[in-house]
Amino acid sequence: MLEPLVAALLAVQVPQASGPLDAPVFTDTAFGVSLPRPADQWVFEPARSRGTTTVIFYPRGVSLSTQLWGALVMTRFTRPVRLSEVADDRVAGSWRPTFGASFQLLARDSLTLAGLPAVHLIMSGTISRIALDVEEYLVARGNDLILLQFRYPQNMPRGPIAEGYDRARQGLVIHGGPLAAAGTPPAPAPPVVAAPPPLPALASATFTAPPRRELWEALGWSPWRVTRVDVSVRLDEVNRRPSFAVRLDLVNDGLPALDSVPLWLPEGAVLDSARVATGPVAVHRRPAGVLIVLPDSVGFQGAAALSLFYRGAALGARAVFADDWMPAVQSRFDSLGHGRATGEPPLTLRSNLPEGMATVATGRLSADLVASGRHQQLWSAEGAAARRPGFAIGPFAPVARATGRMTLTLWSPVYSDAPLDSAARLVAAAWAWNTRVFGAVMAPEVHVVVGTAQDHGLPGLVMLSDSSANHAFTVYREVARTWWGGAISTAGEGSAWLEQSLATWSALASGAVRVSIQDVEQAWRRLGSDAPLAALVPTTATDAELLATKGVSALEAIRSAVGEARLREIVRTLAVEKRGRVATVRDLLALLDEHGRTRLREFLY
After folding, report:
1. According to a count of CB atoms within 10 Å of the terminal CB, is the N or C end of the chain lower?
2. CA dist., res. 23 & res. 511, Å (int)
3. Which candidate, 384, 424, 422, 423, places its Cα nearest to that of 408?
4. For 11-48, how does the pLDDT look when each residue is reduced to its tens digit (9 = 90+)?
5. Can you list the domains of the chain with their CATH numbers?
């Protein structure tokens, strides 16, 4: 069966047709299929050969060599279509040879289209020096196979193309079920455009508000700066409560000499003792945080080393330590809750866990040893990876996955190869996309943990729940946090908007989820809040969703003012110039012209 199928479908690779058909809808009465065109300026070009109908659609006057076109193929066989075989043959027999070494399979899903079973494929590669993504829907109707293909040249704005293709996909009508398909299909009715799917939440479903107020009340404008962090964590099976030993190398940036260090501890932590090189030191409990009394005063630019021993809250089977999990001597937020530039010291993490458990952290795995029923690891994070260190603990095992030019290390509990392969391809595609949009970023290693309790992106570390491992939008958004919040810190008013919205915008702009800007704006309006973005500090999940929806709408307002190409240039310039530094709203405003600044201020203030 597959041999004639391959021959029939290869016509889609090099289209040959009789002439353009300028009509709002293409209808094939023999197969009972109708397809609306993506936009008014597009035309259809049908051709029929040996019982197969191939329809190319493209913008009028645009050469097919630009790779901006789609295809509808309809053919009939003598026995029911087996979609899994067809999909395997499309990938191995058609697309992999066509793309050659540049081929990447980004996604493969089973779904329904026009009420019939379908397989959804997304590939990426290069044809005639043009990089493009290809999306295919393979639909089975008894003995009939309907193929719908969309091509996305990467050198063209993706948003308008994706919106047009989405209209065509939603308007596809295929009459007749599996029993009727072998005979003559009924005459087609006028196409009915399906209602768009509900907009998914753009902010993380596991949003947790940072301890902005607690950090500020405990630390205020503390002049102590951390220059290096060494963390040791031990976990025993008996009480499931981790024990931490943390050494902080400190410098006094204040002019007065200081004989004490204010300290904030994570929620649920119990401080057992504190030491300096000469021995234990006094600890004074305060309403907010604690105060460590030093044996000697430390002058301006003087150094001190402080070791803390404390117990954390009891853990479940899988735990995530992200953002504010370490003791702090300097608040990363100001009195209004906006981000502050506090510096990111290099960090070393040592873990000692029961055998069968593992730690996966930002940075590089420098040592890994299993002995006497214990699993010991050493992770080192410097540079970009140290900007927001974090780790996960659980029954994880490493599996290396090579995807194109990138090698990922995936960590998972008992998990089949298929989801891991799909997750690896998604992360690799998301990394490539964000590199094109924001510029390259230094990450010594890229680790992906599948099966964590929540979704969280950190520099070079992507932690995904089981349900999110193959959810493209979530993967793209969390990978983008290697840049925003990782390699690029944000500070001042609007810092939360910069960090959250640019990661969300990147996922939407990639086409990983088919959501129009109108959908996003409607979702923002439905929240019933219009708080100015510059002052917005997310304390609830609704605040986080407002940052995402109104925040992306603000970026869309810039795009409408300066154009798609200029917006991409501005975002990339901001990311490249501020990599390893701190970005502010003022930096973004400085890159805009007067019209763009006016439009953005309407959302900020």
Report:
1. C
2. 27
3. 424
4. 344 444 456 888 899 999 888 899 999 999 999 999 88
5. 2-181 (3.40.1000.10), 210-382 (2.60.40.1730), 396-483 (3.30.2010.30), 489-604 (no CATH)
